[in-house]
Design a protein that fits this description.
Number of strands: 4
Strand order of the largest sheet: 1-2-4-3
CATH class of the largest domain: Alpha Beta
Strand content: 15-25%
Protein name: Fimbrial assembly protein PilN
Shape: rod-shaped
Organism: Orenia marismortui
Order of helices and strands: HHHEEHEEH
InterPro entries: Extracell_DNA_Util/SecSys_Comp, PilN
Helix content: 55-70%
Structural class: alpha+beta
Keywords: Coiled coil, Membrane, Transmembrane, Transmembrane helix
Distance between the termini: 133 Å
CATH topology of the largest domain: Gyrase A, domain 2
Largest sheet: 4 strands, antiparallel
Length: about 200
């Protein structure tokens, strides 16, 4: 076979292989760089999606907690309004255990309280039944002697037939007594400290 190529061509034959190798290496390097960059982008995208999902979950939790906080605040506001209304109706600083304990000592055994209300300006109404006039007089006397009831007045008294299931009918008296619970917080605190609010 005859070599028709000029003699200079054979000199560059080895360098062509190197050139082809360099080009191939360059292409492979570029492909590897592009692939690694693509994989890095895919990984970062997955990481961002995971973080977004976590943020979404946290936002959902915060939304639920915010709703709970709003409900708690609404309940708190309602309780405060209720307490304000109660204070307007009942008056502040009535130490109920002491008052109720004092009331317990006022009513004798043959009598019972049907209703005990405290309204504006600490006015009270005591309604109930007793089996005889002597006990009714004793209730009024005990109320007047008590430190916790002032301006005691018998408003209504009427004779009635008293009947409760499993008890025999008897004559008795229905009564309504009105008065005022004095504003004597210092005295109530003194009795509370002494333990008079504890039922014995």
């Amino acid at each position: 076979m005859i070599n028709l190529l000029p003699p200079e061509y054979s000199k560059y034959k080895g360098s062509d292989k190197i050139l082809v190798s360099i080009v191939l290496l360059s292409v492979m390097t570029v492909l590897i760089i592009i692939s690694s960059y693509y994989l890095e982008l895919v990984f970062e995208n997955q990481l961002i999606n995971t973080k977004l999902e976590l943020v979404h979950n946290k936002l959902a939790e915060i939304s639920v907690q915010t709703k709970d906080l709003r409900e708690m605040k609404l309940r708190k506001d309602n309780l405060e309004k209720s307490l304000e209304k109660r204070d307007k109706v009942v008056g502040k600083n009535i130490y109920w255990p002491v008052v109720l304990n004092a009331l317990r000592g006022v009513v004798p055994n043959n009598s019972w309280v049907k209703e005990f209300n405290v309204t504006n300006h600490r006015n009270f109404k005591l309604a109930g039944y007793t089996v005889n006039r002597r006990d009714l007089k004793l209730i009024i006397k005990n109320l007047k002697k008590s430190d916790y009831f002032n301006n005691v007045k018998l408003v209504i008294v009427r004779q009635e037939k008293l009947f409760y299931p499993q008890y025999k009918k008897s004559n008795g008296f229905y009564y309504e007594i009105k008065g005022i619970i004095p504003y004597d917080l210092e005295r109530m605190n003194e009795l509370k400290d002494r333990g008079d609010d504890i039922a014995t």
